[in-house]
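Students often ask why we bother encoding 3D structure as a string. The short answer is that it lets us treat folding as translation between two languages. Here is a chain of 152 residues written in the first language.
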Amino acid sequence: MNGLSSAIDGSYDFIIMAKVRANENTATTRNTGESRFYLPTEVFLPLCDNPHLVSFPFDVKEGTEAEMTDFLNSYIDSAEVGTIITSAVLGVLFSVVVVKGISSGIWFFTYQFVMWPMLAIYPFLILLTVAIPALLYRQIAKASIIERLRKN
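And here it is in the second language, the structure alphabet:
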């Protein structure tokens, strides 16, 4: 035994340090049937070829994995652009229909549609959607999963 894997069958021996009642909606590839188990990052990463945080199972025919990967990557990219376009269109429609309708019903309100504030704020919103999760993950990842489980 070299500390992690058995030379006989390639299995792994671990000492159980804690039991957790986990939300069954947790998606992880580190499971055995119905039982899920969690490993510290420094132990898990050497054990897997393609580490990832979230998994989504797909029923893909043999030999079409690369095509599905390309499709999912393009879907993610188009979803980002689609979100910006959708929010711009809905923002304009809301402003023109709802806000203009309300302001036209009140005699001391005036309505003037201005698009540039929305366009000016998008880069900051995109920056925040990238920076906040990265900063939070950096803070959370400082402690091992065992320490985090003990705190909660």
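Translate back mentally: Residues 73 and 138 are 25 Å apart (CA to CA). Keep this in mind for the problem set.
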